[in-house]
Specification:
Elements: H1 2-22, E1 32-39, E2 45-51, E3 57-58, E4 61-64, H2 70-82, E5 84-86, E6 90-100, E7 103-112, E8 116-117, E9 126-133, H3 143-152
Parallel strand pairs: 1-7
Antiparallel strand pairs: 1-4, 2-3, 2-9, 5-8, 6-7
């Protein structure tokens, strides 16, 4: 009960902060660099995360310094977000240059196979982690994640 109320309060506060930062009148961020993973379990299910401050299921990943290699960044993000303990082959799927929210994002989408993980008990950023078959993704998958998965389906 207390954990549930704490989670709801935390989600509300983080969502409000995220929305305030997205507002064009508040801040306009320069181009950022990101690395995101289509992380596949040994059973070929995709690992998705639900962020506390944004709606919909998303692919794990995040920002990186322009000098940080995309592969290193995506593996770091998988360890941080889902508690990845092991992985197989890592392949660059596509490079994306798009405007999303309040920033222009240059993102790398990598396929990481045979991901094994132990989800963290609590995270300030990640509310939940799930696995889903590629042919039966959640209806509330974020539009960005849906676009990215559709863009590389033929490579899977």
């Amino acid at each position: 009960m207390i954990q549930s109320m704490t989670d709801r309060l935390l989600r509300w506060a983080l969502t409000a902060g995220h929305l305030a930062l997205r507002a064009d009148w508040f801040v306009r961020r320069p181009r950022t660099h990101g690395a995101h993973a289509l992380a596949l379990t040994p059973d070929r299910e995709v690992i998705l995360v639900k962020l506390r401050y944004a709606s919909g299921w998303r692919l794990p990943g995040g920002g990186r310094d322009a000098a940080e290699p995309a592969e290193e960044a995506v593996l770091r993000e998988l360890r941080e977000e889902i508690g990845m303990t092991a992985h197989g082959k890592v392949t660059l799927a596509i490079e994306l240059d798009e405007t999303a929210d309040f920033k222009r994002d240059l993102a790398s989408l990598l396929v990481v196979e045979d991901v094994e993980y132990v989800p963290h008990r609590f995270s300030w950023e990640i509310e939940r982690v799930i696995e889903a078959p590629l042919d039966s993704l959640p209806s509330d998958l974020s539009p960005r994640a849906r676009r990215w998965i559709a863009a590389i389906e033929d490579k899977l």
